[in-house]
Amino acid sequence: MQKQSSKEIEQNRLLLKVSIESVKFLAMQGCAFRGHDESVNSTNRGNYTELIKLLGRLNPEIGEIVLEKAARNAKYTSPLIQQEILKIIADTVRDKIREEIGDAKFCILVDESVDGSNKEQMAIILRYVDQNGFIRERFFEVVNVENTNALTLKKEICNVLNQYNLSVENLRGQGYDGASNMRGEWNGLQALFLKDCLHAYYVHCFAHRLQLALVAVSKELKSIREAEINDLITSGEVETGTGANQECSLIRAGATRWSSHYYSVRRLIDLFSSICTLIQDLIDGGLNSNIRGEARGLYLDIKSFEFAFILLLMREVLGVSDMLCQALQKNNIDILSAVNLVSTTKSVLQEMRDDRWESFLWTVVNFCESNNIDVPDLDDRYIQGTKRHYQQKNNITICDHYHFDIFNVVIDFQLMELNDRFSENAMELLALSDALSPADEFKSFSPQIICYLADKFYFQDFTGEEREDLKRQLDHYKFDVLHDT
Predict the structure, then answer these.
(1) Per-residue confidence at 305, pLDDT binned at 50, 70, 90?
(2) The whole model's pTM is what?
């Protein structure tokens, strides 16, 4: 009996080891476990079962025990066992992360989404400096939530932190997207945490901030009639994509890469004459009256001065932001460069508003004349709406309308969005943080700036005596770190 029991224990341990190693491998590779058909007669029973079968072919002992002789209720291969092993591994990893953090300060990065069954969930990532001085960014937990309002998200985040004895008082940074429930100044998630911890500053991804600012200003340019142009692309009348014909085709704008919108507008301008010819051909020889009617309406729209004006204005506004957009997509951009680019982008937009109206108007008129678009007498009175008397503004010329109601308004709106998304407080915090950068042999290192950073942004983390000591400690550190391998 003892010999038999010992043999069963040994076999069970082998069964469990095979299951654990299979779960670890699939989890590390990010592979699905289950198959569409896991029945015995299936030719592909899913990654997990097929991996165990492979191990069985390589090791006859495993194949014999796991696949043939093991009792049906003791194979250690059921989905419940897989989930239990995964949970144990995850808990072990989280315990290790908690050990790495120790009593140090930490930041949280949070994003929300829906899973395959349309249930709301929230991913939590911890960012911290470990006990060896290295920055770590660890995925920590996925939590199912009832809804995505700020109070619910805060409650669930606090539950996770409390479960692993991570104090909210040690929170020193928050990173979320730009949704109102996250970034709201009064009731957003970042504001709720700031009430509990004064130094838990909120930092929003620069590239996403710019994207949201460009989304907002683009909504002010609805009369571009992008839908009609997209219809031409979708119908195949105008080519898109990459390859040999790319130089003479339109570029479809991407949803998240805002540079693609800029290049799409530029290409539309370059191909304007060809597009007009194409639409004229549809008017004359469309397959049916609906196509010919839509083409006729589209032709009247794009051959208008207003369309040309806003199309070229989009090129200018998106073009000013393009350098910033390109830079923020780079992995190796430093904080100070990003902050400076935000500042110069605002300055260029302001200069465009103040000094470039005349040159821009000349560009529009020249474009219209080159493409046989009628240019109105800009000194005539601007007629609004249905031309009824009570709808008209007093003594507003066409030039005034395009200058003050469109050109200035669009640029002001873009500046307002940039100022709102890239607040001065956040910019100063990030700029000062550059003094901590070890890049180029601590070229940006500045004890004075670091002390100012501690005084203004982290005053609760230092006593009066510690702030006095900090300057002297940094003076020693500056010389010591450069000679420490």
Answers:
(1) very high
(2) 0.67
CA-wise closest residue to 368 among 269, 243, 267? 269
Q: What is the mean predicted confidence (pLDDT) over 283-290?
A: 84
Q: C-alpha angle with apex 227: 251 to 290, nearest 5 degrees? A: 115
Tell me which amino acid residue 409 is: V
pLDDT in tens, 49-90: 889 888 888 887 777 766 666 656 667 788 898 999 999 999
Task: State how far Cα 89 lies from the chain centre.
Answer: 30
Q: How much is the average pLDDT of 404-419?
A: 90
Which CATH number fits the domain that encloses residue 156?
3.30.420
CB 157 within 8 A of CB 108: yes
Is the distance from CB of 144 to CB of 119 less than 8 angstroms? yes
**Contact residues for 211 (Cβ-Cβ < 8 A; gap 6+):** 256, 258
Question: Containing domain of residue 180, as a range?
Answer: 86-204
DSSP-derived pairing of the beta strands 106-114 and 171-175: parallel
pLDDT tens digits along 238-267 = 455 544 444 445 555 554 555 667 888 888
Is the Cβ–Cβ distance between 111 and 189 less than 8 Å?
no
Q: Which amino acid is residue 101, in one-letter code?
A: I
**Mean pLDDT, to the nearest integer, of 126-152?**
91
Q: SS3 for 399? A: helix
Domain co-membership, 462 together with 350: no
> Whats the size of the chain, residue-wise?
485
d(CA 220, CA 134): 45
Contact present, 250 and 268 (Cβ < 8 Å): yes
Q: Is the same domain home to 249 and 398?
A: yes
Do the Cβ atoms of 204 and 178 come closer than 8 Å? yes
Same domain as 432, residue 418: no
